[in-house]
Amino acid sequence: MTETSAVMRPLIGITGRRYRLELLGGDRRYGDRCADSYMSDFAARIALAGGLPVHLSYDTDAAAICQWLCGVVITGGQDLHPACWGGDTSVVSGVDPRTDPVVHDVERDEYEIALVRAALARGLPVLGVCRGMQVLNVALGGTLVADLPPSAVQHLSAESAPTDGAADHVVAFEPGSIAAGLLGERAVTNSWHHQAVDRCGAGLVVTGRTSDGVAEAVELPGSPVLGVQWHPEWMVRADPTMSWIVEESARRVPATATSTYARERQQSS
C-alpha cells in the first residue's frame, strides 16, 4: 500500500478502559502503574472493513482528536455512574475502577461523553455499542433504566462470545432507519446488558426494540449516528454496523484527515 492510499483510509477512534497492572500479575514493583485496555475485536473488524483503528486514551483530548478522526466508536463495558444521568447513586460501590474494571469509572464516563459531544459537533459518524449506546444517550441528556426487570427476552445472556445470540432476542427495526437499511426488518442479535435507554436524549430516537419494548437501536435522524445495544464485534457472522462506521467515516476523509494532514505538513515546512 502506498503512503497516499494509507492516508486516505479513515481513522476511526475506539475507546477502552484503564486498570492497574497488578490485575495482570507479574512484578509488584510496577503493579500500581496503569495499562489501557481495548477490545481487539473492534480493531480487527474495522481494519477488515478498510478503516484504520485508533485506540483512544483518556488523556487524548476529545475536541483535539476529533479534528483528526473520521469516525468514533464508543465501546461496551461497565455501567455509567448514575450521577451522569440522575440515577440512584447509592448503588456506587466506591471501589477503585483501576483495581476492578467492572465498577463505575467516572474518568471513563467523562471522557466518552466529551468525545461523543465533540464528534457530534464536527459531524463525525458515531457508533455506540452496548454501554456506548447508553453513553450516546446520556451525552445528549437522556436517562437510563437502572436494572431491567425479568422478561420473556433474556438480555443478560449466559452465552459466551462470540455468538449470534438466541432465538428469543429478536430486534425489530423501524422502516427507513439506518438499522433497518443494514439489518432488514428484524434480526437476532447477541445480548449482554442489564441497563437500557429510558428517556431519549435531545434528537435521539429509538429505531429498534425487542418484543418486551427494550430499546436495542437508537439514531439521530439526519446524522450518521447509530447506537446498538448488542455487540457487533462479537457476532459470529459479519455484522453490517461495523462496515457502516467505516463507510460513513470514509466519506469524511477529504474534509478531515486529508485536508488537516496537508495543512499541518505545509505549516511545518
Write up what this structure looks like.
The chain is α/β, with parallel strands linked by helices. It has one domain: Class I glutamine amidotransferase (GATase) domain (Rossmann fold). Helices cover 27% and strands 19% of the residues. The chain has helices at residues 3-8, 40-48, 62-65, 106-121, 131-139, 178-183, 240-250, 257-268, and strands at residues 11-15, 17-20, 34-37, 52-56, 71-74, 126-129, 144-145, 170-173, 186-188, 196-197, 205-209, 215-219, 225-228. The strands form 3 sheets. A 9-stranded mixed β-sheet has the order 4-1-5-6-13-12-11-8-9, with helices on both faces. Strands 2-3 form a two-stranded antiparallel ribbon. A hairpin with a 5-residue loop joins strand 11 (205-209) and strand 12 (215-219). Helix 4 (106-121) crosses helix 5.
SSE inventory with pairings:
Elements: H1 3-8, E1 11-15, E2 17-20, E3 34-37, H2 40-48, E4 52-56, H3 62-65, E5 71-74, H4 106-121, E6 126-129, H5 131-139, E7 144-145, E8 170-173, H6 178-183, E9 186-188, E10 196-197, E11 205-209, E12 215-219, E13 225-228, H7 240-250, H8 257-268
Helix pairs in contact: 4-5
